[in-house]
Amino acid sequence: MERWASSAAFQKKVRFLTISVAGPKLADTYTKEYQFKNVLNGYIERQNDMPTFGQLGCQGFIIFDQAGKMVLPATSAFLDIDQKAFDDVEFQLNTLLSDNESSGLLEPGRRVQLTRLVKAPRLNGRSGTVTGFDSKSKRYLVQIDGYEKSHGIQPVNVMPLRQSAKNSSNKKRKTTGCGPGGCSMPKASPCSMNDGKGCASTGGCSKNKSDEKGPIECPSVGVRAMDEEHAECFLSLQQLQESRKPADLKKAKEAIEAHFAHEERLFEETGFDDGGKFSKTKSHCQDHRKILAEIDAEMNRCSSSSDSLVSKDFAYTLASRLGDHTKQYDTQYSSHMQEHYKQQQ
Predict the structure, then answer these.
(1) Which of 54-68, 139-153, 324-338 has the highest mean pLDDT?
(2) How many domains does the chain have?
(3) In CATH, what number is assigned to the domain containing residue 254?
């Protein structure tokens, strides 16, 4: 925040404010540790004044306009999309600061991701291409992948994707081995989704028809039952990427849905979470519902569209989505469940 607050783009135009919910000591620590000079740093003194909408921080920023009206209750969360969350903040601020309709607009052809949609939540996370800007409605015209017509989307619901995101993400990803009992097994041959090789049930690799997309990791959480199910899910997604048939999407959904149900039963059986105010499993299970809803939306699109095939982008995105979900959420229960099963032995 200090970097933003001291930058030429925002220094005299935007006020950056942090509010500690743990008293003045933490606020003072932040000022010293992060060397705040241009960021206003405060704290909440009374318990009754605590926010009722939850704590943000890594979950996003709140943005107000110059009249004090809340424009955005939460920008994209760093915990969800990593560095792209900062791009989202900068884009939203630049949009507010634009002094005319053409200033700061995304150019046609720019790739974007939809976010924060309330009336059509099934489209959140979907990617698309900007085809123009409607100055009358002040909405971007976005052709969502898998749809023929462009949709009018408010700037607050659009997040630009980095131009080189595809290449940079491919460089960062590591190929892993998929073998019996899970993924990332040390003895398995290196294989990954859509890198020209497929994960075989024996731990070896077989040729894949497509290498258009970068590799998708087949993550391991160190719990054998979960790793086996992860491997099954990723194998079904590999088949979907090769065929793009709705029938294979249905099979992939069945594998993913069965895995989610088993996982949620294990939460209860092993006492992973008490389900309290800051429940570890609440957001985890909510993401289960979101992933299944995204699959349902694509299945509905296939059944009602002249093009009955699953879109290439969705087939890849679903595998990436499941991989990110595993790394973000499933790894949280890894040590707990490993310890639980050790005690049972």
Answers:
(1) 139-153
(2) 1
(3) 1.20.120.50
